[in-house]
Amino acid sequence: MPKLDYPGDTLTFTADVMLKRLAKYLRALGYDTFFNENYSDQQLLDFSVQDERVLLTRDNALCNATPEINSFYVKPQSPTAQLGHVAKFYPITFDESRFLVRCMECNTPLQNISKDKAAERVPERVLKRNDSFTYCPMCNQVFWQGDHTKRLRKKFLQVLSD
Questions:
Q1: CB atoms closer than 10 angstroms to residue 127
Q2: Alpha-carbon Rg of the chain, whole angstroms?
Q3: Cα separation of 145 and 92, whole Å?
Q4: Pairing of strands 142-143, 133-135
Q5: Closest to 27 measured CA to CA, from 147, 122, 143
Q6: Tens of pLDDT along 18-75?
Q7: Closest to 131 measured CA to CA, from 148, 110, 114
Q8: Nearest partner of 16 among 30, 33, 1, 28, judged by Cα
Q9: Strands lying side by side in the sheet with 133-135
Q10: The dihedral of CA 157, 3, 5, 10: what is its sign?
Q11: Which pLDDT tens digit goes with each residue over 62-102?
Q12: Residues 45, 66 contacting (CB under 8 angstroms)
């Protein structure tokens, strides 16, 4: 996976199965966040140690399982509160230049795609309202900045400013 040039490359995470939405939020903020709901606890631990990632978990036993791993117990239940909680302990910030540069589904860095190429893959109304598109070379999905991104940006700004 190509490395991007921002702190999201030095502060990397692994999220356990109970933190899927938090993983997506961190990815949306540009942070390299591994999530795979098919990984066992041991695989998550091994992967986190190997890649020097912070393991985020809601499982106390998993959090305390291995002393050589940087693990963090995420107590809140709501994904928004989880993000705020993690941001109190790690330097997670909102940076417009990193916002939505990773696929929220698979964590792959997104690439720009021309409007002409996007035209074949997005609804006509989306094409009329947008000039800028990205796509995930792994998932092959096309993305654009719509109303949902405005809401997400507002949510992140609110959570990370508290």
A1: 17
A2: 17
A3: 22
A4: antiparallel
A5: 143
A6: 999 999 999 999 999 999 999 999 999 999 999 999 999 999 999 888 777 789 999 9
A7: 114
A8: 33
A9: 111-113, 133-135, 142-143
A10: positive
A11: 988 877 778 999 999 999 999 999 999 999 999 999 999 99
A12: yes
Tokens 């992140």 locate to 156
Cα separation, 161 vs 111, whole angstroms: 29
Q: Which residues contact 8 (CB under 8 A, 6 or more apart)?
A: 29, 30, 31, 32, 98, 102
Strands (E) in 98-148, as ranges, are: 111-113, 133-135, 142-143
* Secondary structure (H, E, C), 3-62: CCCCHHHCCCEEECHHHHHHHHHHHHCCCCEEECCCCCHHHHHHHHHHHCCEEEECCHHH
Q: Residue 76 CA to chain centroid, in angstroms?
A: 18
66: its two tokens: 């291995």
Q: Residue written as tokens 């795979």?
A: 36
Which positions ≥6 away from 135 have C-beta within 8 Å?
110, 111, 113, 118, 121, 141, 142, 143
